[in-house]
Amino acid sequence: MDGNGRWAERRGRPRWMGHVAGAHAVRRVVEYAARAAVEQLTLYAFSSDNWNRPVEEVGTLFDLFDSHLRTQTDRLARQGIRLQVIGRRDRLPLALRGAISAAEARTSAGRRMTLRVAIDYSSRAAILASLPTAAALHGTPQGETLLPPVDLLVRTGGERRLSDFLLWESAYAELAFLDVLWPDIGTAHLDALFADYAARDRRFGALPQRATA
Ligand code: FPP
Questions:
Q1: Topology of domain 4-199, per CATH?
Q2: 3-state SS track over the chain
Q3: The pTM is what?
Q4: Domain residue spans in the chain?
């Protein structure tokens, strides 16, 4: 979800306002994805490398996650959306950890869509944690193992990198890079992404369908 900072800077506003606008975009995208029958959606909200940002910005982001969890959980539950947070929890503020656990419990019966939010997430750490020996050696308490394979990986904000996100799970993911800043993402962008994805020929190393007939 790249581009919150630039969105704010272009309007002469502080970066935190971009993150607030980004949170509105999260709600828009989650609800539209559920309506479009997406079964699993994973949002990269805070990478383990984001700890290198100024402490005030990190605090703003955690406050935003906390308030969003507290205010949106009932809505998610009503819509049949199950929330799962991935990443390390042991470095998060206690109150945020509590809000995460409560939101996960409150939405656990949701079957329409699984919404994963990655907070203090590092794909390399998750891969290491999934290897018992490596985990013992490196001691990376990610709290989860590997996730289902990714079909479509979208990065906004004009960057063309994976930045330690779902590296293993994206082995055969279709990639889409949008120049749109995350707070500007709208349902028309999602429709275009779905149409583009539907037109791709996913072969997983095999021959194209027409060649096997
Ligand atoms: C990257 O853009 C964005 C983040 C590090 C934060 C993502 C957080 C949100 C979208 C807010 C709310 C999220 C939830 C789950 C409620 P950037 O700040 O690096 O933008 P820039 O590249 O323009 O500086």
A1: Undecaprenyl pyrophosphate synthetase (3.40.1180)
A2: CCCHHHHHHHCCCCHHHHHHHHHHHHHHHHHHHHHCCCCEEEEEEEEHHHHHCCHHHHHHHHHHHHHHHHHHHHHHHHCCEEEEEECCCCCCCHHHHHHHHHHHHHCCCCCCEEEEEEEEECHHHHHHHHCHHHHHHHCCCCCCCCCCCCCEEEECCCCCCCCCCCCCCCCCCEEEECCCCHHHCCHHHHHHHHHHHHCCCCCCCCCCHHHHC
A3: 0.92
A4: 4-199
